[in-house]
Every structure is written in structure tokens, then in C-alpha cells.
# Entry
Amino acid sequence: MNKPSFFSRSELARALWGFRREFLLVGSLSFLANLLMLAPTLYMLQVFDRVLSSQSELTLLAVSLITLLLFMALALSEWLRSRLLVRASLRFDRQLSTRVFNGSFLAYLAQSASSQSRPFADLNQIRQFLTGSGVFALFDAPWTPIYIAVISFLHPWLGILALGFALVQAALAWFGQRQTVAPSEEVLKAAGETAGDLQDKLRNIEVLESMGMVANLQRRWNRQHAATMDKGALAQGLINRVAGWSKFIRYSQQSLALGAGALLVIDGQLSPSAMIAANVLMSRALVPIDQLVGTWRGFFSCRSAFQRLERLLDEFPERGHPPSRGRPTGTISLEAVSAGAAGRAAPILQGISFAVPAGTVVAVLGPSGSGKSTLAKVVVGIWSPSSGAVLLDGEPIGGWNRLELGPHIGYLPQDVELFGGTIAENIARLGEIDSRKVIEAASSAGMHETILRFPKGYDTPIGDAGSLLSGGQRQRIGLARAIYGDPSLIVLDEPNANLDDAGEAALVCAIRQLKAKGKTVFLVTHRQGAVSIADRLMVLRDGVLAADGPRDAMLASLRRPQPPVRTAVLVQSA
# Structure
């Protein structure tokens, strides 16, 4: 059987298509449940037309027992379809949660617009909709014309009246969707942007407090909040008007249907039992439409979540499983590499080419904005080049199995980010803690004695993002994390920016140890002490590799008199 085009268009749609059997069973149970919904009407007709006329208690008992059995079957079918949907939603979550995590991670890594969405909230919204009343309303909606047909069998005019009310309810649902979906989504977006902007500012609470910026922040937030509230009031007003008209139509239907039935009874065209049964059936016929009116916001929110999640998974497909390549030696080379940040038209790096054999310590120099941090991210494979190739041991770095390669790469970014947890967990890269390796890494970073002075030693919690540590302590723990596990390639971006003299000495000692072990080290720095231990110097300027060569020759070249403009740049670089 060929899949419909909708279910073959995306990974997420195919995942939903995989639950077609469950949806088919839910549809069958919904068919049974709606069929059994006719039991109260049939019971009413039997009581009025048979029991009251025959005065037979035995007939009443038999009809009541049969109706009770039908009610039990109705309750069982309702329970089964709910349970089936709950289990299907849990399977759906288990099937996609890991995939959504990986896609979300790749989106953040690539600085994609999809990273601004809330993929796990979207997945949860889809899962909740699959188990909510909205799905039942969709399965029950086809029964509205069937109930109207039964009402028409009792009397054609009552069927016409039921059809009219159904059309009015459907038109109201369509109007409500057209008028209120866009304002509601705009309110949610504005509220999210306001809250996100405030949270971003509060991360720098010390700056806000010390420099008297709180009042300015409050005025800024008040303007954003007031605009959000105005949009919310407008959207809520539209929703309330639609809900008010819906109640008016529902109450009018109940009364007018009873009045029309009474008129037909007076004219002798309808029995009293049929009048009451028609009124019950008409109310039941409009219940699915009424449910759709109540759940259309959830449906369209679910549709928006589906579309966002669909774009995320399609933009960042599941990574393949590259072959295992063993431990790298650390030989790294770039071939005409150009790279830049997402959303920036001009590349930051332009045509960078070099080859660094294993065991080399390279110091990367250059003024601010010359592309040093971008080069560091390209070398470790965080950012993919827009052109050219990054080769590790002669193979494209993107072709390595990242889970296997990760332990063999050490990276210390310019802005050190630690994770909530203990010192040992952060040094061990959130993996299984090997106490010997943790202590070795901390000792190499000159942090062991300091850690032992903490209240719980290596088990001391560091707070959110290392908030309980000083800048220098965070940087040295980040350094210990980078060299944990004896990696082959280590890239350190301004590792001494927050270090004192003791920390600087510990850094130099750590790099000497790595050099003695034959590790490849890239060191982005401006300090002479770190440069002195390098084998090779690279100078970046405006994204171009301006100079590259052995340390001594490069230092001699930098010290030679140069034209004034060029000399100023080189001195700044050095």
C-alpha cells in the first residue's frame, strides 16, 4: 500500500504514519462508542411506546438490563480508546525524544533559527493533543451527519433544523479560527520574547545593580509587558465573543428544538417520546462540533508545533554512523578553509591553509576580531567550513564518529562554560568519574590543592554554570576538563585571560607536559609566557593567515623594523 503524500513528506509525518493501526483501532472504538450513544434515545422510545402503554414491569426490566449492558460496553470502548491513545503517545515520545534532542543540539550548534523554538515543548504539545479531547472530537465529528439522518427519520423538519444549527456552529468555528488564531499566536510569541529578554538581562544582575541600570531595565520591560498585555486583551476579547455566540447558539438549539417538536406533537405529526428523543439526538449531534469549537485552539497550536518540529528534524537529519577510526594522532590540516557565523554574510576566515604535524604546540596571535576564536571552533569541528576542508589524520573531521572522537579532543572556549554539578563531574565531562584521571587533570591545571580546600573537595557543587567559583577557578577547571583523559588534540582559546601569575605558571607547565606527551596544542593567546613554549606561531589578521612559521623565526621577524602601519599591527598581534 502506497503511503499518502502527507505522510511521506517528512520524518515527523512518517513517525505519525507508523501509528496508523492505533488510529484505526481508535476510529473503530469511536464508531462503537457513538453507535452506543443511541442507547439512551432507544431506551426512551421503548419506555414511552412500549412500557407505558403495556404497563409491563417485565418489559421495563428487560429493556433496562439491555440498556445497562449497552452502557457498560460504551464505557469500556471509551476507556479502551483513551488507554490506546495514551500508550501510543508514550511510544511516540520514546521514538522521537532522542531524535528531537539530537536535532535541537545540532540546531544550537549551528546557531540556526530553529534553535529559537522549543522542540521539547512542541513534542510534548503534540503528545498531549494525541491524548486529549481534541482527537476524540475529530473521530466523533463524522457522526454528526449520522445523528442528523436519524433525526430526519423521526421527522424531516427536525432534521432540517438540526442541519441548520450544525452549519451555524461549523461556520462559527471557522470564523473563530480565522479571527483569533493569529492574535493568539502573536500574544504567545510576544510573551515569550518579553520573558526571554528579561531572563537574558538578569543573567548580568551584578552589572545591573552596581551601575544603576535596574530602573532602565524596568522601564524597558514595562513597555514590552504593556504591549503584550494589550495584544492579549485584544485576543481574549475576540475569543470571548466567539465563546458567547457559541453559547447563545447552543442554548437556542436546545429550546428551539424542543419547541419545534412540541409544535409537531400538537399537529399530530410526532409522538411525545419522539419529540424528547429528537431533542436528545440533536444535542448529541452538535456535541462534536461544540467540542471542535472548544479544541480548535489546541488543534492549531498542535499544528504549529508540528510544523516547527518538522522543520527542525528536516533541517537537521539524523547523523550517520561513521566508521570507527581508532585514536587520532593529532595531525591537523586546513585546505583553503573559509568559515563564518550563522546569519553573517561575509566569512570570518578566508582561505586558511596550513598543516600541523602531531606533537606541535601552535600559538595563534592576532588583534581582536581577526578570527582566532573562529579558527579554534573550526579546528575542533564545532563549526563547519563554508568551503575548504578540515582534515584530522588525513580524514575530514566531519567524517569521524563524534562520540568516539570527543574523548580525544580537548577544548577550552574563550567564555568558559561549566555545568551544574560537582567539580569532579565537570572535569570528567559529565561522564563516569575516573578518580585517578580527574586528579591528574586537576593537578596538571594546578587546581588540585585548591580543590582540596573546598568544603567537599572534588564533590563540591559549583552552582549554576560555576557561579560559586571565581573567574580564574572556572578557567582552570575548564582547562582540567580540556586535558582530562589524555586527548590527542587540545585547543585552548585565551586560557590565561583570568589567570594570575600562579595560574599562568600552571598553564605553561600543563602545556609543557602535553608537549612532552606528543600532543597537538593550539593556543590562542597574547601573553609572552605562553608564546615562549610554542613551536610555531600563526598570525591572523582580518580573517587571513598573515604569517606562519617557527617560533624563533617569527619572533625575530616581528621584532625587525617594519613600516609604521604594519609594525603597529604586528606589535599588537604579538
Remarks:
- Residues 1-7, 565-574 have pLDDT under 50 and may be disordered.
- The beta strands are 332-339, 349-356, 361-365, 387-392, 395-396, 409-412, 489-493, 520-524, 536-541, 544-550.
- The first strand starts at residue 332 and ends at 339.
- The chain is about 65% helix and 10% strand.
